[in-house]
Amino acid sequence: MPMTNDETKPVLVIPQLIVGLGNPGTKYDRTRHNIGFEAVDALARSWQISLSENRKFQGIFGEGMGPGATKIRLLKPQTYMNNSGQAIRAVTDWYKLPPESVLVIYDEMDLPIGRLRLRLSGSAGGHNGMKSAIAHLGTQAFPRLRIGIGSAKSINPDRNAVSHVLGHFSATEAEIITEVLQLVVSAVEYSIKQGVEKAMSLYNSRTIAEIKE
After folding, report:
1. What distance in Å separates the CA atoms of residue 133 and residue 140, rounded to the nearest whole number?
2. Is 165 within 8 Å of 109 (Cβ atoms)?
3. Residues ≥6 apart with Cβ < 8 Å to 102
């Protein structure tokens, strides 16, 4: 956890750049692996931030005002998943942003659909997009928000992991994902207002079932 110089209390980790991981092109549109893209789109709609292609940043990019009149930048790398870090680094270098100000949103097979998991830092956990992000930022110490897409075996025992992440959500799952994305917006807004650590304690235990209640 980041600390102040006198080690008396933690420094608030406030996102300034929010990155959704995915693959470009209609072939991958709305697949499980592209839930990060959908999350950024949901944030852009909520905050009325216009997104457009930015070749300098190798991605779909937009900037505007987030909650609390905070300057926010949104990015969907168009480098394909395995090279996501190139686009992230292009933005952080241009705006001179520290790694801890970058919040990366991506899919997680180890979480069931309907769950989120915020963390201040950590390994890539086998996710190639995160491996690239860590390599290009030169650290694991940046926040991330994982969105549960369920494991292949829990949904279809005959489906392998690659087919699973590149597949689409069922109609029932898609309904849940719609609500999950609303939860993502709430969690990110809370992270910007109160810091990622406080958002972790509030949203890591939440499920869509609890929202419906």
Report:
1. 9
2. yes
3. 15, 16, 17, 18, 19, 88, 92, 133, 137, 142, 143
Tell me: the pLDDT tens digits for 153-189? 666 666 678 778 889 999 999 999 999 999 999 999 9
Q: Which domains are seen in the chain, by residue range?
A: 17-212 (3.40.50.1470)
pTM for the whole structure:
0.91
Give the CA distances from residue 128 to residues 23, 24, 81, 82, 132, in Å, rounded to whole numbers and listed in that order.
Answer: 12, 15, 7, 5, 6
Report residue 113 as tokens.
């659909």
Reply yes or no on whether 33 is catalytic: yes
Q: What is the rounded distance in angstroms from the CA atom of residue 24 to the CA atom of residue 22? A: 7
Q: Of 33, 127, 136, 164, which residue is the catalytic one?
A: 33
